[in-house]
Each structure stands twice: as structure tokens, then as C-alpha cells.
Amino acid sequence: MVEKKITEELNETTGTELELELEQKDLKQENEAGESAEEQQATKVSKELAELTEKMKELEEENNCNFSKLQRLQADFINFRNRSVKEREKIRFLTIKEIMAGLLPIIDNFERALTSHQEENELKKGVDMIYRQLMKFLEKLGVEVIPAVGQPFDHNLHEALMQEEDEQYESGMIIEELEKGYILNDNVIRPAKVKVAH
Q: Which residues lie across from 190 on neighbouring strands?
């Protein structure tokens, strides 16, 4: 009986040990399974991170490309706007110059009419009034008379028709204006025809 009891105790101990071993084995497998699941999860997360990083790089490159295109478009637009402004100014100048080509002989005739009649009468006052209105209109357009008498001769603004000795003026100074010159925004419409001191 003692043997039976010992055998039973051994069986119980062995069974308990076996159960413990089985439990430890199960725990170990669960840990290994948990570790492999964690490893799988970590691998999955690192793959997703790598994909997102790659996608972010692609989007950054696309953003840089789009930004460069935008900068070029903006520069093109600014250049276009500047060209348009210059072309408009040029067209405006050419239009006024063409109109002035037709008006200048009329203006010259008004000036001759005003200087030829010394006596004041209603006709001269009317001509003078029309002449002043015409000159104010040209001034509004930006047309200016080129200063001449008493100014140094400038070949860009003046056309010398004659030279004359004059002790009152230094050499190279304009002593008489033979025909008025006109300028628009630093562009000569007609140079002033002048007599220059020699």
C-alpha cells in the first residue's frame, strides 16, 4: 500500500510536473506567438512608414515642380505686363506724333498770325484764345514745347539751321528760335529749329 501510495504521489507529482511543463510550454508558445505577432506588426508598421516616407518625397518633388512652374508663370506674366505697358506707351506716342504732324503746321500758322498783327482787335483775340486752348489740350496729352532761346544747343532736341556771331551769348548757346520744337515723354516729336551763337 505504501508503494501504491508512493506511486500515486509520484503520479500526482509527475502529473503536476507534467501539467506545469505543459503550462510552461503553452506560455512559451503564446509568448513566441505574441513576439512573432509583435514582430509582424512592427514589420508592417515599418513598411507602411517606408511607403509613407516615399509618398511624402514624391509629393515634395511634385510640390517643388509645381512651385517652379508657378514662379515661371508669374515671371512670364510680369514680363508680359511690362511689354504691354511699353507697347501701349509706344502706340500712344506714335498716335500723338501722327496727330501732331498734322497739327504742327496749323499751330505754326496760328503763331505767325499772332505775331504778324500788332494791333489788338477782336479777330486777334479770338485767334489767341483758340491758340491757347489748343496748347492747353496738347499739354494735357503730355506734349511740351522744347525750351530754346538762352539754352545750350542739344543735338537731341534742337536742329541748328544757322550760326551767328553774338557777343551777348556764349558759343553754343541758342540765340533765336526759328520754329518751335515739341517733346512727349522724353521723345522728340519735332526738334526746335534754331540759330546758334558761334
A: 182
> CA separation (Å) from 179 to 91, 106, 111, 112, 158?
26, 13, 10, 10, 10
Please state whether the predicted TM-score (pTM) of the whole model is above 0.85: no
Rounded CA-CA distance 19/21 in Å is 5
Distance in angstroms (rounded) separating the CA atoms of residues 94 and 189 = 9
How far apart CA 42 and CA 34 sit, in angstroms, is: 12
Between the alpha carbon of residue 146 and those of residues 43, 46, 53, 194, the distances in Å are: 86, 81, 71, 11
5 pLDDT tier (thresholds 50, 70, 90): low
User: DSSP letters along 52-81, please?
Assistant: HHHHHHHHHHHHHHHHHHHHHHHHHHHHHH
Domains and CATH numbers, the chain: 143-198 (2.30.22.10)
Q: In this predicted model, what pLDDT tens digit does every residue of 26-67 receive, in sequence order?
A: 666 665 655 577 788 888 888 899 999 999 999 999 999 999
pLDDT over 70 for what percent of the chain? 82
